[in-house]
Specification:
Growth Hormone, Chain: A; 19 helices; mainly alpha; about 0% strand; about 525 residues
Amino acid sequence: MYNQGPFASWVPKPLMLLLILLILPPLAIVSGVYATNISDTASALGVYTDYIAAANNAVTIGMGLAISIIMRVKMRFRSKEILVGCSIIVALLLLLNGTTDNPHVLIVGSLLIGFFKMFALMEMILPVLFILSPQGERGQFYSLFYPIIIVVSQLAGYFFANLIYHTNYQAPYFLMAAAMLGIAALGLVFQHNQRFARKMPLYQLDWLSLILLGASAMSFNYGLSFMKQQGWLQSSRIVVALLAGVLLLALTIYRQQFLKRKLFHFDLFLKKDHVWHSLVLLLFLGIYLASSGIYVQYSMAILGYSNLINAQLNLWMIPGILLGGAIAFYGFRKKLNLKYVILLGFFAFFLHTAGLYFLIQPQLNIEYLYFPMLLKGLGMGLLFIVIWYYAAINLSPDQSLGVTSILLIVRTFFATALASVTLGWATYAGQWQSLSDIAGLLDVGAGASGNLYQTLQLNAIMASSKVVLGCLCLLFVPIALFVATHAYGQLNFRRVVFFRKLVRGNSLKGYRFVRA
């Protein structure tokens, strides 16, 4: 096993650091589609935005599937073979996505981009782990790494939005394809030819389970992405897709129970209290992340903002993200109870949602949205770090990868997509209810105005958005109770005894409330 990182021994350490800074950001941001430009890409291809959203979800699914076999692949191939080979494959897939006019090809290409991207990305994450946290402290590493990656993603989103605004939707694909070929060239020159460990075969991998889980996730992807466009559950295709997703997932879980070398440790969600608790927290996080769809609808339909303005506004999340990383780093250093950090993260999302609730109106200066976006960044920074850290506590590397692959798909795809569908349905139903209520108050003379329907539609959008945002504000109460009643591995039994005696009315004389 080598211990010098992915680069050859003749490469000076300052140059190694420079190479990591050149290679890591493009690998982190490369994607099959870019979320800040979904509407632009859909307009250029002449398709529903649901196709582009499905392609965006497919990238996450591919990454999750890759994580489950990433160590086996690393033991089979050399570091240079992985980085160079995957970079070239991703470059070819980017050219495919940038030149195709078939949305189905775009979805499949995005799935493969996410899959192969993850192997190359891991080659850079491992040396960064030892640079940021030489002692191997995961909390310290997450507190530094996650803010860096999220900030780079936000900057890239603005850069691509600006690039598309001045050129066309294909420009990011060609630019990133050139960057991937440049990474392949750097790997050929500067990487060594040693293996991570002894050569391990790939035939022992359970490819069938990988295919079953991938098919299950893509079935959910189709059902959740196209549910609104096809009339929710009234469409037989949507019902079949969701049932197929459940059935394929059940088959995957059943098959994993009898395998010697498991890819996905589903049993840990029942055996480990912190794993299923983290899963629930990620579902709650997905609900608040999905609320951005309400803001996008309001900003584009009411305020008339473009994708470029929205991407520029998202840059105000960066101070919040950096602040979240600093708070998490301090919390891990001082060994603070994770409960309070998680509560602070969800409280930041609550304040963000409440801010949007009170700010929504027909005319609004963009400056008023800066602070709510900062709060959103703070919530993202804290919860992405702490929940991910808590989910992997006391797990072996093999178990951690098996759980991480599932949680990544849940956090970035399933939770957000499910919440987006639910909030989209609620907003849609609220608009119709608002139009129905207003229609009952109109007279015949009011119908003569040609702009009447447009005005009513805009009022209905704002009214339904406020109702949904108000419900999200109230959701903070059960989330806070759920978090507050969990110990997060730091239960103080003295306090339990103290509280029990207090409830029973027994004497507390002689009991010390805090540890000596």
